[in-house]
Write a structure and sequence with these properties.
3-stranded antiparallel β-sheet, binds cobalt (II) ion, 5 helices, single chain, binds 2-amino-4-trifluoromethylsulfanyl-butyric acid, 4-stranded antiparallel β-sheet, alpha+beta, Creatine Amidinohydrolase
């Protein structure tokens, strides 16, 4: 959506605050031995306390409140009996709906003692997201975001998973436009003031493609490399940096 009233902005801010609070609470619970289902229940509890609902359930009938993906699981992992182990990396992707407004954010969290290569990959995704946010100005071509993301990811020796993208968001979870994590030369439409989008680098150590796991939801990196994913929902502005709703 594009914001055109103070009510829209206030509604999106409330949804964004629920997502941020959920991620804060989830991070506190990440440790070796916890199951992904237990983490999902933590998220469900925060949603319930705020009167928010799960975007994935509402929109796609997803079998979990949030998506939880571990190691080579890139996106859309289903919460379940899997126990996190020391050295894993877990991606917590949270989409909340509150009063008809949606916000979406993801963090990648090392479990226990991080492997150095995993810490570097998580940092690369984090900084690439920051670069993408800095490039998202009204008037700039849409592909300036992906160009900035991709350059940072490559500079740090990692690869973008090309099929996985950011998106418009607002009164539904996935809206136009698609926000690529690489420079699509044809994607030059100018960004517009008030546009609400996610930026979400999904990166790996070598792989550029994903493949379905067979459970109907989870996408794995094609050759089993680990992946990282960082995401925020933000409002594009002309004379100011984007307003990040999920920080
Ligand atoms: N949070 C995901 C995104 O960033 C959407 C998950 S919807 C699901 O776009 F149904 F696949 F879980
Ligand atoms: Co998400
Ligand atoms: Co998203």
């Amino acid at each position: 959506m594009s914001i055109d009233s103070p009510a829209d902005l206030a509604g999106l801010k409330r949804a964004g605050a629920v997502v941020a609070a959920t991620l804060r609470e989830l991070r506190r619970h990440v440790r070796p031995g916890i199951t992904t289902r237990e983490l999902d229940l933590v998220a469900a509890d925060v949603f319930a306390r705020h009167g928010a609902r799960s975007g994935p359930i509402l929109t796609y009938d997803f079998p979990g409140t949030i998506c939880i993906s571990v190691n080579d699981e890139a996106v859309h992992g289903i919460p379940g009996p899997r126990r996190l182990r020391d050295g894993d990396v877990v991606k917590l992707d949270v989409t909340a709906e509150l009063d008809g407004y949606y916000a979406d954010a993801c963090v990648s969290v090392p479990v226990g003692k991080p492997r150095p290569a995993t810490a570097r990959m998580v940092a690369a995704a984090q900084v690439a997201l920051r670069r993408g946010i800095d490039a998202a100005r009204a008037g700039a071509p849409r592909n300036a975001i992906g160009a900035a993301v991709e350059a940072e990811v490559q500079r740090r020796g990692f690869t973008v998973l090309h099929e996985l993208t950011g998106h418009g968001i607002g009164t539904s979870l996935h809206e136009a436009p698609t926000i690529f994590n690489y420079r699509d030369p044809t994607d030059t439409e100018p960004l517009t003031e008030g546009l609400v989008i996610t930026i979400e680098p999904m990166i790996a150590a070598g792989d550029t493609e994903v493949r379905p796991s067979g459970d109907g939801w989870t996408q794995l990196t094609e050759r089993g490399s680990r992946s990282a994913h960082m995401e925020h929902t933000l409002v594009v502005r002309r004379d100011a940096p984007p307003l990040v709703l999920t920080a």
